[in-house]
Design goal:
45% helix, 14 helices, seven-stranded mixed β-sheet, alpha/beta
Length: 331
């Protein structure tokens, strides 16, 4: 666990206001196209829990993940010419599904670049939504770099899974819904990969509810943005395999999420593979929920630090439920 020293008051205020307003515009834009997901109290599932704990169930989104929000926000802002050309994205799963679904609804063609690490069933789901799959590179960052290059060469819009202001603002709409239902919210836990989810959520919370603690949660085996935030620039961090497949992979150079996340994350928690798996097993035993590894990261981070939140109200973002067969077999 790491409590970060925040910047001097007011230093990040213009950035926070800018992003907070962008999230509100995104919320108005996508609310008719994206499901308002349920919020369910889960305090009783957690041993000796003395906090009020709520789960934001983004696994119940149409594509099984929060990623539909950011993809929809970006695609709804395409010009007529951009729609005609089609879009390109890179993802080994949830972002690809989100872009494919949003593009299909808008009548826009989509091409999704995946790496050789992609789970075959996820690639098939993307194709079933009408998108074309292109397999390139040995890891997600390779596929992302190649996908962006191909988009530039063809004059198409590239929709990054995190390095896009409209995508980040779309993910932040989760925080709008949280505050509408839980106005006295003391802390929000969310998994961190590229930083689009926690960046969007945190930006809106700092704008609308600055007293709410923003807790970024990482698997110990893949702390790329965590280490980059400490250094102040994007680092090539060696990773180990993790069941949090959706948060694995390096960051694109110059990503906007480094600045945003540095400004909005208050507390960083890293969890082991065993802690992630136990969190996933806990909700499966108690509720029958099959949550993916990234969602398990956020829950595991709360379980690890629950003693700090006695008497407080906490939300945990269950960011998705799209398990690969490999991870599902561990449960």
């Amino acid at each position: 666990m790491n409590d970060r020293q925040q910047d001097e008051p007011g230093v990040a205020a213009p950035l926070i206001n800018q992003w907070g307003e962008a999230v509100l515009r995104a919320y108005d834009r996508i609310r008719v196209a994206v499901r308002r997901t349920p919020i369910e109290e889960i305090s009783g599932l957690i041993p000796d829990c003395r906090a009020r704990v709520f789960a934001k169930l983004e696994d119940e989104q149409e594509t099984g993940s929060f990623k539909l929000r950011g993809a929809t926000n970006r695609i709804l802002q395409l010009t007529s010419e951009e729609k005609r050309q089609g879009v390109v994205a890179a993802s080994n799963g949830n972002h690809g599904l989100g872009v494919a679904a949003a593009a299909k609804r808008a009548g826009v063609s989509a091409e999704i670049y995946v790496s050789r690490q992609v789970a075959p069933q996820k690639a098939k789901r993307i194709e079933k939504l009408g998108a074309r799959i292109r397999q390139e590179g040995s890891d997600p960052l390779d596929a992302e770099i190649i996908g962006r290059q191909r988009a530039m060469e063809s004059g198409r819009v590239f929709i990054s899974p995190y390095n896009d202001p409209d995508v980040l603002a779309g993910q932040g709409t989760i925080a709008v819904e949280l505050l509408e239902e839980l106005p006295r919210l003391d802390a929000v836990f969310a998994a961190v990969g590229g930083g689009g989810l926690i960046g969007g959520i945190g930006a809106y919370l700092k704008h609308a509810s600055p007293q709410t603690e923003v807790v970024g949660c990482w698997p110990e085996n893949s702390p790329v943005l965590f280490e980059s935030m400490k250094a102040g620039w994007i680092l090539p961090v060696a990773e180990k395999p993790t069941i949090s497949e959706s948060t694995a992979g390096g960051l694109e150079e110059g990503s906007i999420t480094l600045e945003v996340c540095t400004a909005v994350i208050d507390t960083c928690v890293l969890v082991s593979e065993e802690e992630i798996l136990e969190a996933m097993r806990l909700v499966r035993r108690a509720k029958g929920w099959l949550i993916e590894g990234a969602a398990g990261v956020a829950l595991a981070a709360f379980l690890k630090t629950a003693h700090r939140y006695e008497g407080r109200t906490v939300a945990i973002v269950i960011c998705g439920g799209n398990l690969s067969e490999k991870v599902g077999g561990l449960l």
